[in-house]
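ok trying this again, last paste got cut off
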Amino acid sequence: MKKTLIFITTIIVAFSLSACNLFGPSPDEVTTEFLTSVQKGEWEKASKYVNNTDTKKTLKELTSSKDEEAKFMLGLFKKMSFTDGKVKEADKKATVESTIKTVDMKIILGTIIEEVMQEALAQAFSGEEADDEAIEKEMTNKLVAGVNEPSAKKVTNKVKINLVKVDGDWKVDVDQELLNALTGGLTSVGDEMEGGKLNPFGK
């Protein structure tokens, strides 16, 4: 009798594991994998969990990028932490309530803009011609330094991450709310400054 129970238990466990593999990762598992990949700067891996074409493209471009933008992204996201909460699932849609904490980019960007504006005004009064390329490079360098500053203040955002089922697999539907939480408010500033040019993941 004991051997029979062990055999039945083994069959049940094996079936359960097979079922998990058959139906694929759950919405919260996909969300965790996506956020962890972003946190580690594993762009290629992160792109596999998203539904948005533009986001996929941008993440894949970051994979081979070695410029200051990539350094900024790595610096920003490695400071990120998150916890996933309540999951709601209905048919081919799901939401995962997540809490994301990262560097407060509104503070950093505000400080940088103020510094750059002061320098630009000083140049103007001295008769020097403004070098747009140099200003852009300086801002990027300051952004990299800002996110890597150990004492940089952080902001916490609660966000509902949307997922959709595509060909049987759950994919993260990256929207402005999620982007804003991931970037510490950077995309909301970008939306206010010439239509969101500072959005690192595209539209």
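PB: full thing came through this time. The longest helix spans residues 2-23.
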